[in-house]
Specification:
By secondary structure, this protein is of the alpha+beta class. It is built from four helices and nine strands, in the order E-H-E-E-E-H-E-E-E-H-E-E-H. Strand 3 and strand 4 form a beta hairpin. Helix 2 runs antiparallel to helix 3 and helix 3 packs across helix 4.
Length: 152
């Protein structure tokens, strides 16, 4: 099962894992990543983060990333869920899960998907801090550097 979803609703990690690996005895390794809204950035208390996306294009790009991961590693299943809307600290933002017969492929594929998701998928974040006007988050050089290793 290979799936991507963009949604406002929260997700249940355990339910996602159960449905992803159900009835597939070839799966010997499952690796997950769950991103959450931090409560602060550089010692500034964060009130909320608003995530927007380009509908249709975001899902298409996420599906293309999973397809590329499938070409690189022997995956049995993978899922990416990305939330949109206004989220407060500790809210879940993103879920990435990869399933393979062996851990090495599952770990690398999950890391690949997260690295590229941060730079390729059309999502935008606006952060609200106490005592300041909400501002859009700029792309980070560290995210581009993380993806560079996958180009080799």
């Amino acid at each position: 099962m290979f799936e991507v979803r963009v949604q406002q609703a929260d997700f249940d990690i355990n339910a996602e894992l159960a449905s992803l690996s159900r009835d597939n005895p070839a799966i010997g390794a499952i690796v997950t990543f769950t991103g959450k809204v931090r409560s602060s950035d550089k010692d500034r208390p964060l009130i909320a983060m608003t995530l927007e996306h380009y509908p249709g294009m975001a899902e298409s790009q996420m599906a293309a990333l999973i397809e590329e991961a499938r070409q690189r590693w022997p995956l049995e299943a993978a899922r990416i869920i990305h939330r949109t809307g206004r989220l407060t600290p500790e809210a879940q933002i993103v879920f990435v899960a990869t399933c393979s017969a062996h851990r090495h492929a599952a770990f690398e594929a999950a890391e690949f998907l997260m690295d590229w998701l941060k730079t390729k998928a059309p999502f935008w974040k606006k952060e609200e801090y106490e005592g300041a006007e909400a501002q859009w988050v700029e792309a980070r050089d560290a995210d581009d550097l993380a993806t560079a290793r996958w180009d080799a």
